[in-house]
Amino acid sequence: MKIAILPGDGIGPEIVAQAVKVLNALDERFELETAPVGGAGYEAAGHPLPEATLALAKAADAVLFGAVGDWKYDTLDRPLRPEQAILGLRKNLGLFANLRPAILYPELAGASTLKPEVVSGLDILIIRELTGDIYFGQPRGVRECPDGPFKGQREGFDTMRYAEGEIRRIAHVAFQAAQKRGKRLTSVDKANVLETFQFWKDIVTDVHKEYPDVALDHMYVDNAAMQLVRAPKKFDVIVTGNMFGDILSDAAAMLTGSIGMLPSASLDANNKGLYEPSHGSAPDIAGKGIANPLATILSAAMMLRYSLGRAEQADRIENAVKAVLAQGLRTPDIFEEGTTKVGTEQMGDAVVAALAK
Ligand code: NAD
């Protein structure tokens, strides 16, 4: 099993180093090969996604990704900016399904901005379609407004579209994920206003016929946003399009208190995937040794489960993370009175020690 390790920028190398330590502490050895990406790719090879890095990602069985981006690259032309590496990897590897679990460990209930009784024990999975929707639809741009009261002025426009096959494949991923969990799926749309999402709803309803053991309901995105902060524990699995998923998954992330705890997976049609923490490169804390590595360590666990077929090893890592939280160890982002503050390295070491027990 070969894993491409792409640490990236900012806190990326610090947190990925902890996940690598954890992978190396498992019973099974994996072949790990590291390559630069993002700003580091630009520095090393003049491009955020160097050819050799892309070739490694394609050849590997899975990719473990840190984070990319730094303010110092903001003046580069858009195709050379670090964030383009993520879009390039998604496109080249055909990663169309983004899985983001939002789990609130009981020990961290106080870290959420919501009341503990609303979020304690939260365990939901948001599945976001990643390669379609208004983010990629053509045509787009700025043109002369052709009609209406603003005729003749400049207008910005984008195109929302989803092909039937795109909706079917993400629906299958979602129904299958729901089968492995609480067997409830909520499809989020805006069918009352958007043709694209009436079509989405019709296709998801049709795919449901193949999964009679899963209970499906449909919810408008505005209501879903409200329910996520009102009664988030009512959800099991949520599936939605690229733009709605972008927004809802960040809202769900904050239910758990810290973005430093949240892993993610982006999968292709064969369950090959790229695994990364849900947060960015956090340039404000890079190099200080205080970043929370748990989202990255939990991403490595997801990688073992979804792409490498090693569910037992994934369970071991997840249990080790629960154990260090139960011991009261906290990086500053999740620190509370009465717990023990530790740095990035110490947190990684504690997970390794808990694995050994
Ligand atoms: P960010 O997620 O990097 O940081 C937001 C806040 O959360 C910061 O205060 C940061 O210190 C904190 N934070 C993030 N991860 C943390 C961790 N593991 N432990 C403790 N605290 C943590 O978002 P941002 O500041 O908006 O963006 C910074 C850079 O990251 C930008 O260049 C942006 O483009 C990039 N970015 C990259 C990705 C990615 O690589 N997938 C995703 C989002 C943003």
UniProtKB/TrEMBL annotation:
Needed cofactors: Mg(2+); Mn(2+)
Annotated keywords: Amino-acid biosynthesis, Branched-chain amino acid biosynthesis, Cytoplasm, Leucine biosynthesis, Magnesium, Manganese, Metal-binding, NAD, Oxidoreductase
Subcellular location: Cytoplasm
SUPFAM superfamilies recorded: Isocitrate/Isopropylmalate dehydrogenase-like
Pathway of action: Amino-acid biosynthesis; L-leucine biosynthesis; L-leucine from 3-methyl-2-oxobutanoate: step 3/4
Binding-site residues for NAD(+), renumbered to this chain: 280-292
Domain spans labelled Isopropylmalate dehydrogenase-like: 2-351
Protein origin, superkingdom: Bacteria
Binding sites annotated in the UniProt record for Mg(2+): 222, 246, 250
Record site feature (Important for catalysis), residues: 135, 190
This enzyme's EC code(s): 1.1.1.85
Cofactor, how bound (note): Binds 1 Mg(2+) or Mn(2+) ion per subunit.
Top-tier EC class: oxidoreductase
Main location: cytoplasm
A Gene Ontology BP annotation from the UniProt entry: L-leucine biosynthetic process
NCBIfam families associated with the record: leuB
Protein name: 3-isopropylmalate dehydrogenase
